[in-house]
């Protein structure tokens, strides 16, 4: 989880904004059940009357009510009322209404309701002649009127003692019914009161629903933008890191794995970021708010919520133990599938040539089946969770109705309160369900975050020095000083104690049997790898003391395999020197003998080049790669077996033109063909990573047996005899 939060850290302000909006959304969602309860309890059952004491009452009715008020509190009740404007004979007698200061004071209203609660219950009982009145010890109304204050207070005290077991909800309902009868006597429109209350409460619900919808949309928008930014930044950081990797890091992370980490893994992080902002932050707010609301609704049934949450946790823990180990394997399976797919697509021509389509299909099918089988297992386990969760939620609803029905029947709870309790319970359980679902999905995203962070934390083995030296007026002299090299993790050196100098204006050729270390040697010059022992210098400066950019700016590198980029011919030739003129570009193409096929194309230098140069031949790729290096105008040319795809005539023409163009630069050529290096100023013969011979063609024929064997295998007897004669 820490790795995931690391990606969210730059967006702390947006996360805080989301948290604030989620609190607003939770407030709206948690308020709706209470309004639903009000509509049922007050709007329907109570006829829209939500007052605890009558706001208006006839003077005669108040005097009857005061019969049931203790004598010491009668004056306080009378002082709370004043004569209403719509009072007098025209309105059926004197009408009293609550004073404004009493209406505006919640404390005074609560105190007045506490005084009038039991009297209103008794007044309603007397008025409606409730059965069992005499048995309950309640005297006849006429008798009750003639009692003096002391006797009446004594009777009221006895009645209060006998009514202690009556639930508060019944007292409240009786008070409401009494107030309703009072309003009816005053001729007030009860239907209008009920309708107005329902419309007003419904309007509040609609407003809250609209505000909640707006908050939800806002959260979704911010979460999507943050997730997209996290994905963009992660991809950018990974790309910049990978571009700076040396060949050693590419050997450590396979290309297929790097592709998976840059795409699928970052997508997992992006998806979970949205879920964190929309669900993980929201669920605790809803859970805490729901519990608080429930405690204010009915404490007696909170055990049902605890039971539901416990059942959900049990289900999720089981799934977590079963599924989590599989998530760690999924991404490795994706790596494997990408690797097989990439190998097949890259080598499709070889596969067709050797007729191994069936074998490759089986290899792909095996990797695909393994991933499919694992995903099916995980998805089946996840789909099992939802039916179980729905069973738990519906069971909890039935249990609430069963328990709540008894409370409603006993008068301890109202129907609306039970409905609100059900909604709050569902909100709490859904909150815990969301948390649990995220906890199950989190491991896969955590694995992806770890894999991406592994790339970001990886320190490149090839680094620029803290205080690099500066190159001025570079001549291009490359010197190998007792250089040895061993690949990372290898048991022995590939190159052993190499010492030679490639001087400006001279051509240094490297030849040897396959696997002798020729390409490894030239890969050390651009610092694709760093030497294990010894040093390589450029104009006397150790190349490790220069920045990679400054070093490579002096090199024109043509790899063993011609690599082109999608675009056109001009963009590929000018790839290393975008600021070169058109004349320089055409000159580079002419030296590389590329004009031969460029001029035959309709769009000339604007002719398109497809990805990887798939629409040009191998020889054309090499010529364009050579032209790209020439257009850069470097001080050191490195040709890693870059003439192998050229015919002898083109090879000779390219070398002849190069000799004129590169007369001031150092040229290093790796070659397999003797004809390519016959006229080199210096030839190095590599044998098993060691220099077996060094000199010109004729010198080596006489001095180096390994070189002689190579020459004998490629030159005719006449050519070999002539060269040997000249060497002597």
Quick rundown:
With 728 residues, this protein is an alpha/beta fold. It is built from 28 helices and 15 strands.
Task: Describe the protein's architecture and organization.
- The protein has 728 residues and is of the alpha/beta class.
- The protein has 4 domains: 2-16 and 217-457, Up-down Bundle (ABC transporter transmembrane region fold); 35-198, no CATH class; 471-554 and 635-694, P-loop containing nucleotide triphosphate hydrolases (Rossmann fold, 3-Layer(aba) Sandwich), CATH 3.40.50; 564-633, Rossmann fold, CATH 3.40.50.
- It has 28 helices and 15 strands.
- A 6-stranded mixed β-sheet has the order 9-12-13-6-14-15, with helices on both faces. The protein has a 4-stranded antiparallel β-sheet with strand order 5-4-7-8, covered by helices on one side. A 3-stranded antiparallel β-sheet has the order 1-3-2.
- A hairpin with a 2-residue loop joins strand 14 (682-687) and strand 15 (690-695).
- Helix 2 (12-45) packs parallel to helix 13, helix 12 packs antiparallel against helix 17 and helix 26 packs across helix 28.
- The two termini are 76 Å apart.
């Amino acid at each position: 989880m820490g790795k995931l939060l690391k990606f969210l850290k730059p967006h702390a302000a947006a996360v805080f904004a989301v948290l604030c909006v989620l609190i607003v959304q939770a407030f709206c969602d948690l308020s709706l059940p209470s309004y639903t309860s009000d509509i049922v309890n007050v709007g329907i059952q109570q006829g829209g009357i939500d007052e605890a004491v009558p706001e208006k009452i006839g003077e005669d009715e108040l005097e009857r009510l005061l019969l049931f008020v203790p004598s010491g509190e009668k004056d306080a009740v009378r002082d709370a009322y004043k004569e209403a404007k719509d009072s007098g004979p025209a309105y059926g007698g004197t009408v009293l209404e609550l004073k404004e200061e009493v209406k505006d004071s919640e404390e005074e209203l609560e105190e007045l309701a506490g005084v009038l609660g039991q009297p209103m219950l008794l007044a309603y009982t007397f008025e409606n002649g409730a059965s069992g009145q005499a048995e309950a010890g309640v005297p006849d109304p006429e008798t009750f009127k003639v009692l003096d204050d002391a006797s009446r207070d004594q009777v009221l005290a006895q009645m209060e003692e006998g009514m202690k077991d009556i639930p508060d909800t019944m007292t409240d309902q009786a008070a409401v019914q009494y107030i309703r009868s009072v309003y009816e006597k005053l001729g007030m429109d009860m239907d209008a009161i009920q309708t107005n209350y329902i419309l007003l409460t419904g309007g509040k619900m609609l407003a809250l629903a609209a505000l909640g919808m707006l908050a939800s949309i806002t959260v979704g928008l911010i979460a999507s933008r943050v997730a997209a930014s996290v994905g963009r930044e992660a991809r950018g950081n990974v790309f910049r890191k990978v571009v700076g990797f040396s060949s050693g890091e590419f050997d450590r992370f396979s290309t297929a794995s790097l592709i998976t980490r840059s795409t699928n893994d970052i997508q997992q992080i992006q998806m979970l970021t949205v879920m964190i902002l929309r669900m993980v932050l929201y669920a605790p707010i809803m859970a805490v708010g729901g519990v608080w609301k429930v405690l204010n609704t009915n404490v007696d049934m909170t055990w049902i919520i605890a039971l539901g949450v416990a059942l959900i946790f049990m289900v999720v823990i089981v799934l977590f133990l079963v599924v989590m180990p599989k998530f760690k394997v999924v991404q490795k399976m994706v790596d494997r599938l990408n690797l097989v797919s990439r190998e097949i697509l890259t080598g499709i021509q070889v596969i067709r040539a050797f007729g191994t389509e069936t074998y490759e299909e089986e290899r792909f099918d095996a990797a695909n089946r393994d991933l499919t089988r694992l995903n099916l297992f995980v998805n089946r386990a996840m789909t099992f969770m939802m039916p179980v969760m729905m069973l738990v939620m519906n069971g909890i609803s039935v249990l609430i109705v069963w328990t709540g029905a008894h409370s409603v029947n006993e008068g301890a709870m109202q129907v609306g309160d039970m409905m609100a309790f059900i909604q709050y319970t569902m909100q709490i359980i859904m909150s815990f369900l969301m948390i649990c679902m995220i906890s199950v999905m989190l491991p896969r995203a955590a694995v992806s975050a770890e894999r991406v962070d592994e790339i970001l934390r990886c320190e490149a083995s090839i680094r620029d020095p803290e205080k690099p030296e500066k190159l001025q007026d570079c001549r291009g002299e490359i010197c190998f000083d007792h250089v040895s090299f061993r690949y990372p993790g290898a048991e022995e050196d590939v190159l052993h104690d190499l010492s030679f100098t490639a001087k400006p204006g001279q051509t240094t050729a490297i030849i040897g049997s396959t696997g002798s270390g020729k390409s490894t040697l030239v890969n050390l010059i651009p610092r694709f790898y760093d030497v294990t022992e010894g040093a390589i210098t450029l104009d006397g400066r150790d190349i490790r003391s220069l920045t990679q950019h400054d070093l490579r700016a002096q090199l024109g590198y043509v790899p063993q395999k011609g690599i082109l980029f999608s675009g056109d011919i001009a963009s590929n030739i000018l790839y290393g020197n975008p600021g070169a003129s058109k004349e320089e570009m055409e000159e580079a193409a002419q030296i590389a003998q590329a004009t031969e096929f460029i001029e035959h194309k309709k769009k000339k230098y604007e002719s398109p080049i497809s990805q990887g140069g798939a629409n040009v031949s191998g020889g054309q790729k090499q010529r364009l790669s050579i032209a790209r290096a020439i257009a850069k105008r470097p001080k050191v040319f490195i040709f890693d077996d870059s003439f192998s795809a050229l015919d002898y005539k083109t090879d000779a023409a390219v070398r002849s033109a190069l000799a004129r163009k590169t007369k001031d630069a150092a040229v290093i050529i790796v070659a397999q063909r003797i004809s390519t290096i016959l006229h080199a100023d210096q030839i190095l013969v590599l044998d098993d990573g060691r220099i077996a011979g060094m000199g010109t063609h004729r010198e080596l024929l006489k001095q180096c047996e390994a070189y002689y064997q190579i020459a004998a295998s490629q030159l005719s007897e006449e050519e070999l005899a002539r060269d040997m004669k000249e060497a002597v």
